[in-house]
Amino acid sequence: MIKKRPISRKNTRDKLLEKAIQVFAQRGSQQTTIADIAKAANIAQGTIYIYFQSKEELLGECIQKIINPEIEAIIDATKGIEDTMDRLYEFFVQHVRLVKQKPYVARFLTVEARHNEDFYATRPDYSPLKRYLDWVENIAEMAIRDKRIRPLDTKAFALLIVGVMDLTLAQWLSHPDTMDIAKIAESVRDIIRHGTLHSPEPK
Question: What domain range includes position 168?
Answer without folding.
Answer: 9-194
